[in-house]
Design goal:
homodimer; 8 helices; alpha+beta; ten-stranded mixed beta sheet
Chain lengths: 274, 274
């Protein structure tokens, strides 16, 4: 499928876009990104995604070379050109081309359309297993490009027949590699609020949940998993995905929980009407 | 100046080399590198640099798609094509192009010639100032591309009229942003041995120093700076560069020390005969 991207002012087929070898994202890992999808041809939660992207950029001291309205027009042009009902959109901004491989001059900004890789239905039906890792992301609140850790854990995840990794540090749970974490204890919905990237789907789900549950942001310890009734993870591609096993520990009765299913249904209703 | 690079099997002018947008170095910060220079047209400490590059790759679970002899031939061809007496050479290897922006398939390997940016002579004559930062690099022993921290500190370094940053964690000194750290207490030469990248210039200088000084690898605490007579940093471009101020603290008498100068002379003699 032919996808398009915007790179420093021009829209081109993605295959024709490339970063030169002095880019600081490439040479020094100095980059940030964001990622969202469209529903019914419109970007989901655009205001929140843009706000987060702009915040990440500010925390990395990079000026965004495009304003919100221009960025929206680019996204809509990518939607039109893709000839798909819906696409994923990735923003990638790096420190740009550097004369000495360390100094920032002008950032490089890429906005590209991507095919959506939907989560397999079986994962919603059965729930997923995650492994544990003692780790906390550097600058977790910034959506930097630093995902070395999960790529290094790929083999460990496969060996455990798991789908992802749940990070904890000294027993305090933060997040999965690319998604947020929630537990239910009865009708209390609890989610970590530090050392995390504040997900847009997390925020959406917290809004949806507040009518029916007590929503709490705070510390979630490994020990909280023992009496959790349900657990799930949220992201733009996973939506609300049940977690039924963490390492060797089975959550609740080992099946996706009914409250999790209720939130997934609410979420699906929201995006159906987006 | 026209420089050349080798990218996945081909040698081209550097301007014609580019990374596609699904590269994991770019999207996920999943990359490693190495960097050395030639003296008299021959790569300095080639065996040690190759060994370190191969070790970094192994620790990032990436197979090196070229063997040592082939890599040496590439380096020598870049030397010839550059028509310079001496060049710097940068190896960059990333997780390669990914079908789903997270899975590694085949790494991308770039080997490129760069102009040498020599350290200004005034820095050798006057010594440099560094600021302190509480930080330890993730996977410090691997030469990954993760240098976000020092790029974020660029403004702080400039404001302090300093040249670089010295990392410490809970009072234990590790390294500068891109170079190693040494102190002299009398004729004892001491350098940190953990949470560091094991520099090739560091290793070379430790060899050179052992005839005239007691060389110790071990913990160096901030408190050790108070009675240090001299301090310096080592790297392939800095060689042996005196440090005369760390934050607000003046080292020794605030001038480059005579033992540091002795080691710089020894190093210059070694490279003169390389």
């Amino acid at each position: 499928m032919l996808m398009y991207g915007y790179f420093n002012g021009s829209i081109l087929p993605v295959e024709q876009i490339a970063f030169g070898v002095t880019d600081l994202g490439l040479l020094r890992g100095f980059g940030l990104f964001d990622y969202f999808r469209t529903y019914n041809g419109r970007p989901f939660q655009w205001d929140w995604y843009w706000e987060r992207f702009a915040n990440s950029a500010a925390k990395m001291h990079l000026p965004v070379p495009i304003n919100k309205e221009e960025a929206y027009r680019v996204v809509m042009e990518l939607v039109t050109k893709s000839r798909q009902p819906d696409i994923a959109v990735r923003f990638v901004m790096t420190g740009g081309y550097s004369p000495d491989s360390i100094s920032v001059v002008n950032p490089n900004l890429l906005i590209m359309a991507e095919e959506i890789h939907p989560t397999p239905p079986s994962q919603y039906e059965e729930g997923i297993k995650v492994i544990l890792d003692e780790y906390v992301r550097e600058m977790a609140e910034v959506k930097s490009t630093d995902y070395k850790r999960v790529i290094l854990l790929a083999q460990a995840i496969r060996s455990a027949r798991a789908s992802d990794v749940l990070y904890q540090k000294k027993g305090e749970i933060s997040e999965l590699s690319r998604s947020n974490f929630f537990i239910f204890k009865g009708d209390r919905l609890i989610t970590p609020n530090r050392h995390i990237l504040h997900g847009i789907t997390r925020r959406t789900v917290m809004h949806l949940a507040q009518n029916d549950f007590t929503v709490e942001e705070g510390r979630v310890m490994l020990s909280d998993l023992y009496d959790a009734d349900e657990a799930f993870t949220t992201s733009s591609t996973k939506k609300v995905l049940p977690i039924v096993q963490v390492g060797d520990l089975t959550i609740g009765d080992g099946k996706p929980g009914k409250r999790t299913q209720f939130l997934l249904d609410q979420f699906n209703e929201l995006i159906g009407n987006w």
